[in-house]
């Protein structure tokens, strides 16, 4: 009966949490962002405390530095990205038509060589319509994101509410951890602490490493594309780096967009087009063989397939907030699954009863 009550209690708690997230998903973004920011900056506050600074002043210094860096980014980088994004949306239909013409001309000889002329014409027409519809959908999506009232409200709430939430959480972080620790059932306190520390290590290693990786790759892609002279190179490069927290998606999306823009901009000169392709090939090599093992490592235990499923599932259920909580939740579930599997492998259920 005790096991049954525990199971019902924790299942009910989980259901309430999921329902609460789903109901309040439209207003959770600044609070989740503030919590994530406080979690990321807590080790810095602990380091300042260790050299004699009080927790209050540590929190004030850290957030002031963060706000200064953020405001500098708003004044320097954000206006450039915003203008490039608006220009990209306006130029997208023209780029699509030019890309269709380039691809049609280059594919005429190849398709006519292997296929009947009527079939080749149908394939070219179908391909052109698919590209056109995809570009129109992307333009409408970006336009709705920029012009939507909810998006403006989210941006304002991020700028105003998130720093306040981060300040109070960072100030009271250690006290909150101690308070939650005092609520743990005494019988299972040691086990819960062990699992919580393992979850914290996994989440910290992955999130901090992946954020650093995305920043490095974004700067690499943006700098290289701007050196080549690609239009919207800063926007495409930083966007590819930002989306790189989803395995392979950032590089593939950046490659497709940059390749399409390069074809339209530089055709028929093959050199800058090949250089644009080479940038993403080299970037993927550096990410997979140098930066990923060093910054993130293999000890986190998050398989890319499991990570992609978690991001898509939480993103579908909770929107952008779901993307923010997907990785920590997936990491926590992974720790619990590994613990449950280890208990199962040591149990009579796995080994069976000894033969009499």
Task: Write structural notes for this entry.
The protein has 356 residues and is mostly helical. Helix content is 87%, strand content 0%. It contains 13 helices and no strands. The protein starts with a helix and ends in a 5-residue tail after the last helix. The model is unreliable at 144-149 (pLDDT under 50).
What distance separates the N and C termini?
A: 31 Å
Low-confidence stretches: 144-149
What value does the average pLDDT take?
Answer: 76
Determine the structural class based on helices, strands and strand pairing: mainly alpha
Beta-strand residue percentage: under 5%
Keywords:
87% helix
Briefly say what this structure is.
The protein has 356 residues and is an all-alpha fold.
List the helices and strands and how they pair.
Elements: H1 2-23, H2 29-50, H3 55-114, H4 117-147, H5 149-171, H6 173-183, H7 189-228, H8 233-242, H9 249-266, H10 270-296, H11 304-318, H12 320-345, H13 348-351
